[in-house]
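Treating backbone geometry as a discrete language has practical consequences that deserve illustration. The sequence in question and its structure tokens are set out directly beneath this paragraph.
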Amino acid sequence: MPIFEINLPKNLNKALGIPQRTPQRSQLRVLKKLLRRARYTAFGQAFGFEQILQSKRVEKMFQQNVPVYSYSKIYKDWWHKTLEGESDICWPGKIKYFALSSGTSESASKYIPITNDLLKGNKVIMIKQLLSLLTYQGISLSAIGSGMLTLGGSTDLQKGPGYYAGDLSGITAKKSPFWFQPFYKPGKKIAKEKDWNKKLVDIVEKAPNWDIGFLAGVPAWIQMCLEMVIEKYKVKNIHEVWPNLTFFVHGGVSFEPYKVGFEKLLGKPITYVETYLASEGFLAWQDKQNAKGMRLSYNQHIFFEFVPFDENNFDADGEMLENPEALMIHEVEEGKDYALLISTNAGAWRYLIGDTVRFVDKENAEIIITGRTKHFLSIVGEHLSVDNMNKAIHLVSEEFNLSIPEYGVRGENVDSLFGHHWYVACDQSADGVALAKAIDEKLITLNDDYAIERKSALKRIRVTVLKENVFMDFMQAKGKIGGQHKFPRVLKGDILKDWEIFIQNK
């Protein structure tokens, strides 16, 4: 796969009769490549990949022949076979690595197949992103040649029968090329550490010995690390330790809530670079300075489809309806929200990744992430789903013999402490402190990411017990009465502001 693309002027292309490499053409090329590679797999045989490739409208026949998949459906129908060691199921060969993602209703973690082909594609995008930094204005070349401190999962992967599993960041670091090792920090020994607190302590100890130009990771973890370094060495800001620190590469959660606190730790401004790197692949990347959004990786190893995120395709709980409308990249409109379907060289086919995106520049295929198809709470990377919340409330209700018909959860940041604030409806006598402890314990068993964050950034869990009528009165005040209207499980934005004002006046 090429790292560099030669783009001839449009008028020269036209004069020579060379078709322009538009996003549409690039995507069709990617789809055909994926289908050719996977046509002899069990999945490819089942859905007639050979016949699809011979059709005049490959993309349309692909959509007609292959159903859309959620994680639970594709795991139940196909991916469990790869986890059990079978070869040539959804992608040629045997899957040796699985990325562990956040909890589902079936288990504590999702097992996402990772192939060498996917990792190669991800590396190409990473290199393209690094090369794009050379075009940035006001950036020192010494910074680009400095080290990159990545705070990610352990490279000491979980050993299964014939496979390894762990965070994608851990798998990527373990399989990173030799030329990258001199730049990669914290280095192999510390990266292998599974105890997050010990990993942070070890990083802080080594910090003065490193020349760091890049930081990469979840904002809350990075912020915590910088605070520890500053406190340890009694400096005013992190640039007294790492003078070449110039870039912060982030993704996964919104950076906006962290920005004010983060910049208090700096001695000079730095450049923020957003990425869209999911367990399923490197989906998009910020390819130029001050870009409005991130450029989709449309010409590499992922085929994208876009399902309008509306009542025609999703129910009130965020579940995708049967036979949704799925658009290709040239059919989308700017300013509208779409749920992403992806097909990849790791055996994901028409897979609902769960994120919603919005095009801010269609011509350049630039997107922003607007949310999840289902409500999630993730202020520090805990990826707490409504499914997790519902299960925890149900278990706690049974344990305490309480009726908790309604609840809502907000994230909060008070005095540099990140936490969750639960509002629960209960007309019985209930102790908020005891409920907080019990809910916390249940969520730790239900969600691996939550369990990790409770040992690091997520410091405070509290519960406010309110009468059931408070929740009902709020819904009535909002004009949302009836079976189709539900109290929001995740309180954010305007709804949160309205809720705070409402309960203050009760």
The mean pLDDT is 86. The domain at 376-504 is CATH 3.30.300 (GMP Synthetase; Chain A, domain 3).
